[in-house]
Amino acid sequence: MPADVEPAAEQSRPRPEGYWYPDGPAGMQSSVIAAAVTAVDVLRAVRRFRAADVAMRIRARSDMDMNDSDLVALRHLIAAEERSESIGPKDLSVLLGISSAATAKLLSRLEAAGRLRREPHPSDRRAQVLHATRRAHDEIRRVMGAAHQRMLAAAEKLTASEQLAVVGFLDELSGAMDEPADSAEPVEQVVPASPTD
Question: How many angstroms from the chain centroid is the CA of residue 89?
């Protein structure tokens, strides 16, 4: 068999590069063929960013000896404090998508570790307001601060119009990801024509 001819079984097997998004012409990535960046290149870059983000958060959880839901809870509390919003246990249950029993265990873990402070709600004494402690703020800053500074520096390299374009794209992408799978119309994958067609 000539070296440039694949067996039929090999031709029918999906290529890894085209699994999620269609390959460029003749099965090659479009960025190799042309200098222009395509929509598929953009989505692949988003995927690389998401993988790097997950790896960064795994390192942070390991450094702080926390599980994922605890770290996400702290991030929500710190973000709410920056917006001057108060969060209670019920709010945290909704944000994390967990039961009230799981939230109670999470809050007990964070409080025992000195990362969470509970206070009575100012207008409803039966309710609680949750706060990340100074220790939690310091730990997050120590573990993730340098990465956040590098991320900010990368964003600051963009022009104002590029920043606007990135924000618009990411917001639209978030909306596309939030849509339930069963309500989305099926999308027909575009398969490039082979050179022999």
Answer: 24
The amino acid occupying position 142 is: R
Query: Which class for 138: exposed (0-12), middle (13-18), buried (19 or more C-beta within 10 A)?
Result: exposed
CA atoms of 150 and 144, how far apart (whole Å): 10
Neighbours of 139 (CB within 10 A): 22
* Nearest CA-CA partner of 17 in 5, 6, 32: 32
Exposure of 24 in the CB half-sphere (CA atoms within 13 A): 14
Quick: pLDDT tens for 23-34. Answer: 554 444 444 444
Name the pLDDT band for 121 (thresholds 50, 70, 90). confident
Tracing tokens 């990411």 back to the chain, one arrives at 170
Q: Which residue has the tokens 């590069």?
A: 17
Neighbours of 23 (CB within 10 A): 17
Q: How many CA atoms lie within 13 A of 25 on its CB side?
A: 7
Q: Which residues is 175 bridged to in the sheet? A: none
Contact 128, 117 (CB under 8 A): no
DSSP state for residue 35 in the 8-state scheme: S
Dist. CA 31–CA 45, nearest whole Å: 12
- Site of tokens 């601060």: 145
